[in-house]
Amino acid sequence: MKYSRYWVFLGSYGAMFFMTFVSCFLGQFILYILPEQYMKFGAAILFFIFGGKSLYDVLIKKQEEDDNEEIEKEMEELNQKLTQKTKDIEEIQTSNQKVKNQVFVVEGYIVASQTFLQIFLGEWGDKSQITTIAMSASYDPIRVFVGSVIAHALCSATAVTGGRYISSFVSEKLLTIFGGIVFIFFGIFTLYNL
Hints:
The chain is mostly helical. The protein is globular and about 60 Å long. The protein contains 7 helices and no strands. It has a domain of 130 residues.
């Protein structure tokens, strides 16, 4: 890994934490506009759509690599920016240990900031955010927030520490099928609780 796992995790998790907070707030705000029954029904429909789309993508249609190419392109741009920043920082370094520590922190802030922005902007409006909004409108927002934050922490930590290793054992296809089934289960559970 090119950058410190600590700073990458900090930026990634910070973005997901903030996004979860905003999503839970939006879910509760929507309840002031629409009655709870409509929100729960809408949430159930969204869960069925997300679950069906996930299963469709895996079982019927081959997943398109466009998303991966776009992400790879964005990551390459991020790597170029970070490499340039790192080079700039390395030119400033002196033999003084205090200066080296400060440079590490500055470089870390740059890595964390870039990761935060990329994750935050990349995740805006995706399934996890919409699901969090729908769930916080349909269920206790504090529990939704805590559950989401814990899940994001586990996913971010797993991705940062052993993403490549784990992906050699568990296929993306299997994870997508599992995710689709979970969304459909959430849809059934939400309709049942109407």
